[in-house]
Fold these 3 entries.
Entry 1:
Amino acid sequence: MVNNDITKESKIVITGGHGFLGHHVLNKLFEAGYQNIYRPRAEMYDLRRQNEIERMMERLDPDVVIHLAATVGGIGENKRRPADFLYDNAVMGLELMRASQEYDVEKFVQIGSACSYPKYGPMPIHEDDMWDGYPEETSAPYGIAKRVLLTYAQALRDQHGFNAVYLIPTNMYGPGDNFNPETSHVIPAVIEKLQTAIDNDEPVVTLWGTGNATRDFLYVEDCAEAVVKAMEAYDEPEPVNIATGRDVSIYDLAFIISDMMQYRGVIEFDSSKPDGQPQRRLDTQRAEKLLDFCAGTGIIAGLEKTIQWYRSQK
């Protein structure tokens, strides 16, 4: 075990700290009593550039780095920009971890992705299943980039004793999510489409895929809680799933949201569009045992909060 000397006075840098998950991690850190928190913006430091990262390290001198910055998007965006998704995510993580080790950062928390898991396999998906097949094709470049970062984190630990830990959240949603229809993930995309249909009195809403795919949806505040727990108390090389351990089909999800939003039209599915991974439900035993983490927000409560936040912003 690597010694973890984090205190409430430790200097914490959150990359992507102004983003969806980053905002909630910041709140959880403040609630826990941490005050020396820095959230450098992308325009301040390009994390794909070694010299920019070194400049950030020299200026901020962090004790902890929580790496949340990523190039992300839904299935459509993954299909449009596969090269960007692989390059940006791999290079940012590699350069940032390398610099963190060289600048004696005490703890590095790397966020992975359930997109790294094989397209097919037994359910629930255990962390040890990572290398049992190729990821689902539409998000494979992104998933492969995250696999590389897991391998590098473990290699730095083996070679240099660097305390890098790796978390694998499943599909997140919640207040502050990206509702841009061109780049959003499934829950904000469905909410946005239904609200547009309500506003414009549209009788039909069409969603991508067959509706048969399932996902394990994680409320963002629960994920933020797990990130802080891992920063404080987890110091091992094994990756840890952060999930609910329960999945719901996109078909059922669409009608749950439709009922909540009181949309009275017809929902159709365009089976010519990709579903993504056919089924996704993550094994949560390792998180329960090693992080004392169990996602506390059910899908109904989480969706209600998300829809309420979205409508308040409009």
Entry 2:
Amino acid sequence: MELLDRLNDHARSTDAGPRVAYRELTPGGRSLSYDELATQVSAFANHLQSQVAFGATVILCIANQIEYPVALLGTLAAGCNVFPVSAEIAEPELRALAQEAVAGAIVGSARACRALGDLVTVQIDATAILKLSKNTIAQSVPAGDLLLCSSGTTARPKIVVRTAASVDAVSAGMCAAIGFGPADRVLSIVPLCHSYGLEHGLLAPVRAGSTVHLCPGLDLATVERELTAGGITLFPSVPSAFDMMCQVGAPHPLPTLRKAYAAGAPLPRAVFDAFEQKFGVRIGQLYGATEIGSVTFADPADPHFDPAGVGRPYDDVRVRVVDPDTRAQRPPGEDGEVLISAPSMFRGYLHDAAPAFDGDGFFSTGDLGHLDTHGNLVITGRLKLLIEVGGLKVNVVEVENLLAQHPDVADAAVVAVRVSQTVSRLKAVVTPRHADRPPIPDDVRRFLRQRLTPYKVPRVVEVRPSLPRSPSGKLLRRLLEES
């Protein structure tokens, strides 16, 4: 695995070896240099090889802390499959995933280890990871697979299987497109158990020899301090975090930040404009999915940069936009279903024998979008989110984008409300931009009627304090549809 080779190269280098690989942004936070990280990874791999069979699946259930890269890279180095899950996962869900993945071991908190005590043969408490013997070298074996839960934004999550080769491909693609380098300091706030957080807080930085400032979650005071005085150069984040930064505190310089970018959810133009106005920084966008990894990047330094787009494909990534019904390729500027072929793509879904790709090796993302004349990809909606109202189809993303322009709306989602077996109506769920001035439903509908064809205007507008989102910022529509 190239990633592990790069780690060992950094460790042996007189320049890179002493460089900090990970620094925790917590009171009394610890750090690991590259030579220490490589040593700990080897020790963990050796320990794991003595405990479980080659090819076993190991669940990783810990928060963003320095044990995380040790355990994840060590598991791969031991020839085992690593399955990261949220440190906050509920016990029934954890047990269900362990059974589905046929897990043989868990590395996690005491709570997580107890939860699987009767299901897996090996439980490794996260607090013991850095105390393992460092005097032995792990047997060299082929690296294991990376298992990840799909986002589950519209349906039940599936377990995605990505090979060592796909992990190498996505880390190389990010380094080339975004420009991760040894002088970079990366502020990592997205949980490492998610594809986006893992790729930009572990895979690309370790490949490049960057330093990661590891935050256990979104803490605005910590983010502001690090961006102001922590020497941060790269800030991968989510739209909701950028929005909160625009709403809280006074403008201040971000002296060392060279790239900030968003993924996980569409970046509203209003947030892009507000962040640029307040901080003087233009936010880029990424596009990807758990199944394919990060595959495009919209770089604000590109002369053809479009704030509405998610950018150009990485090297060796192919994008097709096709008619959802005929599968005929769409010309630039015309919307269709987005298909991706990339070396970073997954092998398939666990326990699912159905082919994951079409005959040409393309994966159907389920997204709607188009390529512009410069080759930039613009995402405009979701195929499964086209709701039929009176025989006419509504792209809910179009409605949500307009809702976000209402001065009293901070966040918005549009879902279908089933009236009968054949009739659906639209419901908008919005959150207040100002705590003392919640949106008035009739006013919101009037706002939309001035801008949309009548059948696209939701019949019901519901105001809630917040919308259900995953830690990576994805809207969990199924929870709104169920409520």
Entry 3:
Amino acid sequence: MTAALVAVVVLFAWNLGAHYTGATMGMPYASRSISLWPALAVVAALSLLGAVFASGDVERTVGEHLVPAHDVQTATALVIVATAGALTMLFNYLRLPTSTIQILVFCVLGAAVAAHLRIDWGTLGRLVLVWAAAPVGALLLGYAFTHGLDRVAPPAQRLLPLLLVAVGVCASFAMGANDVANATGALILVHVTSLRAAGAIGGAAMFVGALTWGRRILDRVAFDVVRLDLSMASAAQGVQALVVILAVTQGYFTSMNQALIAAMAGTGVARGRNTVDRKQLEAIARGWLIGPAAGFGLAYAVELLARAA
């Protein structure tokens, strides 16, 4: 059972590496500040580093604070990771950015309810507050950062492509720290590995995922969803990285996609124009609503079936 859990964790982390290429390097790639394969290589390498060296607090939140770790059986942990991973793969196939964090947490809740486990509602409440505050903060900061970059002197404007790639690097590191726990938190939940080892396992899988399947979401975010100039792209990507890093340092994780989309909307408000394709945005919003609900329902059903078998 433990071997199966590790295998599913690796597959889930591989999907995460592919899923967040757009959220981390979508803006640099869209602005032609970096080409395809260097962009994917940056995501792969920096997400690995973030997962290994900066994911411990978030992994602890997933693995120790949502439900009592001593009450969780390996089979339940397997249900959680398998259902969350399957839904993430589906969203990757559909090329829809979503919140894998929210999917994972609701899979934990669904399995916990079915298994009659205690839920730490305080931790859940704090996560919900972070999820609610992050997009609002990103929108306001996107507005402010765009106005700030517009005031930069023209000679300095030429440095914006380098700045945009730099914030993409920061976002990729933040993604590894923020999102690897979606997959590897289950290893902490049932005491399979240490925090650092779990981060390394998940980070390595994310590295491979970004390189092998990351182009689908990267192309979608870069070319189908938004219309930004260089200053706006720099502001949006920088705000997203800042918001996520702030959450991670407090031991919480938030949606990179939601932070980025909100920041892009803020840049549009600053310029007085719409920067996000409405139909694409509506599709993404549906994904954000459907994902958590589907996670809860699927994990609940699978856990009940597993217990009845």
